[in-house]
Task: inverse folding
């Protein structure tokens, strides 16, 4: 329970700092900043707990005291961070599926005709912002009127192509 | 690290089981659907976590409180890892960025906007999603009109909107900040 308590506490602190920063100023490369912020929170928090808080007790919980407990804390914290980062991608960009669901919900008991939905789904809203994201995240560059992948983009494209291939799944999208 | 402490990594062993079972179910029973393979993988992984933790508790004769605490921590860590894996699969299945990356990768010399839109566009995105949500019973089509089916997606949409409001101070990408 000690690991669960202190792991949740460190993650909660990281989350509070994240919300405060986001409310003040939205970073340009959001995923990267979230990664740095939570990694920093884990490293600093673990160091402070290890070095200065061994006599401390919060709600009856003493900080982790051996390497095994710290390993568990790191595993728990990293799992939470990865899960949060992957969820954040759906916060950062509007999901077409969720837009469709909300529009149908707003239409109430009479439902929504297909034509009404088509009006809100166009290339300017669905494709162009995602292409711009690739440029911001340095996964692609734009030269001579064409988008081309950078090394980082190729790596990620290969990773997903491999995973989809292993599952014998289609292109997706 | 003593062998005794290997159980600390039980959530990772669970995740490994989850991935192996999910991929093999997906490969060998395509017509049963991706979501079902995710569920089967998740349950198998959790069984692995429980087996490791119970074996640890029995072999060390640890007290009940310590065992419950350990199993709770491993369960939560595994559930969070499983959630992350589900979203990773979902990214490959639905993310527009990933699909655009793949289209650019498959092209020999990059793509202009028009060439990209020939391969992947809003109309296709719209059709794929409607078909997927009807197949998963998240939407119902009656007399040419769409209705909410299983409300789980609606709850997710509302939760996402709440998080957008808290973090981004707006409900959607194209809405002005509040």
Result:
């Amino acid at each position: 329970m000690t690991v669960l308590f202190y792991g949740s506490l460190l993650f909660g602190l990281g989350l509070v700092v994240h919300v405060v920063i986001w409310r003040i100023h939205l970073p340009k490369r959001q995923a990267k900043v979230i990664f740095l912020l939570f990694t920093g929170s884990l490293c600093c928090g673990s160091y402070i707990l290890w070095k200065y808080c061994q006599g401390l007790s919060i709600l009856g919980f003493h900080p982790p005291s051996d390497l095994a407990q710290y390993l568990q804390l790191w595993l728990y914290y990293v799992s939470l961070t990865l899960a949060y980062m992957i969820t954040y991608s759906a916060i950062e960009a509007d999901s077409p599926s969720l837009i469709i669901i909300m529009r149908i919900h707003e239409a109430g008991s009479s439902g929504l005709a297909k034509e009404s939905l088509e009006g809100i789904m166009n290339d300017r809203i669905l494709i162009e912002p995602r292409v711009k994201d690739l440029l911001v995240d340095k996964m692609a560059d734009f030269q001579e009127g064409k988008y081309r992948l950078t090394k980082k983009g190729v790596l990620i494209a290969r990773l997903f192509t491999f995973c989809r291939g292993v599952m014998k799944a289609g292109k997706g999208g | 690290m003593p062998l005794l402490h290997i159980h600390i990594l039980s959530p990772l062993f669970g995740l490994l089981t989850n991935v192996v079972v999910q991929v093999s179910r997906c490969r060998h029973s395509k017509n049963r659907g991706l979501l079902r393979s995710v569920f089967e993988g998740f349950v198998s992984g959790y069984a692995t976590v429980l087996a490791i933790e119970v074996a640890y508790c029995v072999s060390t004769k640890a007290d009940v409180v310590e065992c419950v605490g350990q199993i709770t921590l491993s369960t939560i860590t595994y559930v969070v890892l499983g959630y992350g894996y589900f979203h990773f699969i979902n990214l490959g299945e639905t993310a527009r960025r990933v699909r655009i990356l793949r289209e650019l990768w498959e092209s020999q010399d990059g793509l202009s906007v028009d060439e990209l839109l020939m391969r992947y566009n809003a109309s296709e995105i719209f059709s794929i999603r409607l078909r997927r949500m009807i197949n998963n019973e998240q939407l119902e089509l009656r007399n040419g009109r769409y209705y909410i089916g299983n409300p789980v997606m609606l709850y997710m949409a509302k939760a996402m909107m709440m998080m957008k409001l808290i973090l981004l101070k707006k409900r959607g990408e194209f809405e002005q900040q509040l």
The radius of gyration of chain A is 22 Å. Chain A has a mean pLDDT of 88. Chain A touches chain B through 77 residues (CB under 8 Å).
